[in-house]
Design goal:
Shape: globular
Radius of gyration: 20 Å
CATH class of the largest domain: Mainly Alpha
CATH superfamily of the largest domain: Farnesyl Diphosphate Synthase
Number of domains: 2
Strand content: under 5%
CATH topology of the largest domain: Farnesyl Diphosphate Synthase
Strand order of the largest sheet: 1-2
Structural class: mainly alpha
Helix content: over 70%
Number of strands: 2
Distance between the termini: 25 Å
CATH architecture of the largest domain: Orthogonal Bundle
Largest sheet: 2 strands, antiparallel
Amino acid sequence: MLSIDRYRQEFESYLLEKVKAKEPVNLYEPMVYILGLGGKRVRPVLTLMATEIFGSDYKKSLDAALAIEVFHNFSLIHDDIMDDAPLRRGQETVHEKWDINTGILSGDAMLIKAYQFFENYQPKTFGELAKLFSKTAIEVCEGQQYDIDFETRDDVSIEEYLKMIEYKTAVLVGASLKMGAIVAKTSEENREKIYEFGRLLGIAFQLQDDYLDAFGDPESFGKQVGGDIIENKKTFLYLISLQEAAPTEAIQLEHLYSIDPTDVNGKIDAVKHLFERCGAAELTRREIEKYTSQAFEVLEGLDLDSEKKSLLYNFGKNLMHRQV
């Protein structure tokens, strides 16, 4: 087994080798651009790790890992267009650097390219990977639609929010691990359990992201703290606050989420104060821990030796204790 950094390096090298600009340049350069912006590469690393954990060479799953990362970045291009976001990882978004039409078309091409990477596998493996990928891709789209719908709804429930982040974020984490298991040809039971481990960890990951957006260290978080508050996003923190707050506090929070003040820092501070006062900050931390613990319970049931389980356990712990 390699270190996480080594898996990441191996993947980066393969990415540079396989994804290059060519004619027409305005179709392919945006692909190279967004894939070159970096990121943690969590999903492809998980695919490579899972392949080796289940007894096969990680190099066999490089194409599956590339498909996952290309798809993820395709979704980011389109998300940025829908959100009219100017920046991605501190750099211009694709539609800002080029234009909206280029962003849409390059994103479409990336989705098709993702499928093409599966063509390097034997028919049985290709079929299994493509089936899982199609299921996951449509769920991610469903999650994005739920997220859009929630922007104009005032009656979003916590259960609905958890379903949204499961589809938008967690299923892709689960699929990343399961793809590695498929390439390794492990048992169906192991495939399902590693998927469930990833799905639960993915929910915890997104809840942690919500929490860090409000309470993270600005120096290490990598983006503006309080961004979700400025955009009035109905995160778990917001929804659990409405559930737990006294009536006057709930009214105050709803009011803060209905205004667009010039003093955004004042709004952020006021909302964070309400999050803490009604106990939502602590309840969110508990929810993160709950899903992380459930993921580790699934991990215990995997047919793996303790050393390999500990690699996944440590990866999960590091993911949940991150500050970025």
